[in-house]
Specification:
Helix content is 44%, strand content 14%. By secondary structure, it is α/β, with parallel strands linked by helices. The protein has three domains: 4-294, Rossmann fold (3-Layer(aba) Sandwich); 315-448, Four Helix Bundle (Hemerythrin (Met), subunit A) (Up-down Bundle), CATH 1.20.120; 459-505, no CATH class. The longest helix has 24 residues, at 345-368. The chain binds zinc ion.
């Protein structure tokens, strides 16, 4: 393995060597669970999904934590704004833990739909009962929920305090950035620029010494006297600031030194600068070797796409427009993670076409080489080999700062090659362990529907076909007939075959 990544900490591309040979330790800043993940969030999480898939593909073990932020994350990332979850809980008159549970569930469902693997590279089980999960159970899967780690946060804040990096006001305990001269190294933004942002801050604490100082512990006083989630602490009843959770949970699970910390470029000037300061304050040394950041999804005019600007989509909105989540995933693969994506529906449409043509091409190649049924396809695949020359070119692209568009280009090269047809297919399907485009599943769907499964037939028709197959397997003939009639009404001829329901346009 010889990966190189752009390390924001040193502002250059650097060779990546894990602390433990063959194992990568990694922390990814996770979602704030007060709303559904949207296309902007999915861009971030799919980038890191490509990364851990690439590690897995090249034989690395992964030890990774993704957190769920369920307390202390203020609107607009400011110190004195409204807590996103507290605000939502009050406006809906629902317990804040219930709000968090609902959206943790939705994160798992949406990630699974987008074929994002769990933190350690395993399939996500989106059906787990979120309510029954405790911190140990979550940790086994690589997830960590902020409110499960209040004690750890208090402990790490105590260390920072003992080392002399804090001061207290009547409202909060702050990290004093003037005590950490390296504070601006990550963002390269002069400290005085922070004065600009602060004007938008809601209700500034008059006792705060410098605008860049940030909250470690917020007291339940003043604006926050009715904050729903609160705990006892040496600094009074209150709740943790947003940034401390990542320092506390990262070092709890991954140790005082670990390899990679990921997040969006929007985290560089505040959230990650603060995490680095906290880590140093607690341990007197740096904790993370590589800080890696994905660029944003931006609108056509170059503005960051976000929920507040209403220029992002939920996954189901993308589906309602007739797109498969894999169309979006393909879109993300075509633009490398460190380049902004100017999102447009035309761009998504282009990706949809490319993805469908990729699947169809494989189907055609397979048919032309005599695999008439899905069973024959699977048999042929088993006796084929991944072509080493292309595999190593594919890996070189991934190793080069996760060049996913370059990796996709190897697929086009393969199609033009004179290699054995099924070796070409086997190689592309092997690559799909990293792409995660569910290519094989889609090719098999084409067999089910005589080549009309994707692109030509609507998703709801494909769903009925699948339901009918299940009904037939269960010998539920009444249900199967009912679904056949439904398909005919929708304009599709139905033929029963050994491989299942086959349909064609009437
Ligand atoms: Zn974080």
């Amino acid at each position: 393995m010889s990966f190189k990544f752009y390390n924001t900490l040193n502002h250059k591309k650097e060779e990546f060597k894990p602390l433990i040979d063959g194992q990568v330790s990694m922390y990814s800043c996770g979602p704030t669970v007060y709303w559904r993940v949207h296309t902007g969030n999915l861009r971030a999480y799919s980038s890191w999904d490509f990364m851990i898939r690439a590690f897995k593909y090249t034989g690395q073990k992964i030890h990774r934590i993704i957190n769920f932020t369920d307390v202390g994350h203020m609107v607009a990332d400011e110190d004195m704004g409204d807590d996103k979850i507290d605000k939502q809980a009050k406006s809906q008159n629902i317990d804040p833990f219930e709000i968090a549970n609902t959206y943790i569930r939705s994160v798992l469902v949406d990630f699974k739909k987008f074929n994002i693997l769990g933190p350690n590279g395993e399939e996500i089980d989106e059906t787990i009962d979120v309510k029954s999960m405790d911190k140990e159970k979550w940790a086994k899967l690589g997830w960590a929920r902020a409110t499960d780690h209040i004690e750890e946060m208090i402990e790490i804040i105590k260390k920072i305090e003992e080392n002399g990096y804090t001061y207290s006001t009547s409202q909060a305990l702050y990290f004093d950035v003037s005590k950490f001269p390296e504070y601006t190294n990550l963002s390269l933004q002069p400290l005085n620029d922070k004065q600009v942002g602060v004007r938008e801050e809601v209700g500034v604490d008059p006792e705060k010494k410098h605008p860049a100082d940030f909250v470690l512990w917020m007291k339940n006083v003043g604006k926050y006297k009715d904050h729903l989630m609160h705990w006892q602490s040496p600094w009074g009843v209150g709740f943790p600031g947003w940034h401390i959770e990542c320092s506390a949970m990262g070092t709890k699970y991954l140790g005082e030194y670990f390899d990679i910390h990921t997040g969006g470029t929007d985290h560089i000037p505040v959230h990650h600068a603060n995490e680095i300061a906290q880590n140093y304050g607690a341990f007197k040394h740096h904790v993370v070797n590589f800080w890696i950041h994905n660029e944003m999804l931006v609108s056509a005019d170059g503005e960051k796409a976000s929920k507040s600007k209403k220029n992002v989509y939920l996954l189901e909105e993308i589906e309602e427009m007739g797109y498969d989540p894999m169309d979006m995933r393909y879109y993300f693969l075509t633009v490398n993670y460190h380049v902004p994506i100017r999102f447009s529906i035309e761009g998504l449409e282009g990706s949809r076409k490319s993805r469908i043509s990729l699947v169809k091409k494989i189907f055609e190649i397979a048919k032309n080489s005599g695999a008439d049924t899905s069973v024959e396809f699977s048999v042929q695949l088993k006796i084929s080999t991944v072509i080493e020359e292309y595999r190593s070119e594919f890996i070189s692209n991934l190793e080069d700062n996760l060049n996913t568009s370059g990796a996709l280009a190897v697929v086009s090269k393969l199609f033009k090659s004179t290699e054995k047809p099924f070796d070409v297919i086997a190689t592309i399907l092997d690559f799909d362990n990293v792409f995660g485009l569910r290519i094989e599943e889609n090719v098999l769907k084409l067999y089910e529907t005589e080549g009309t499964a994707i692109g030509d037939i609507p998703v709801e028709v494909a769903d009925i076909v699948r339901d009918r197959d299940t009904a037939r397997q269960n010998k539920d003939w009444a249900k199967s007939d009912e679904l056949r009639d439904q398909l005919i009404k929708m304009g599709w001829n139905v033929k029963d075959t050994q491989q299942g329901t086959q349909i064609s346009k009437i």
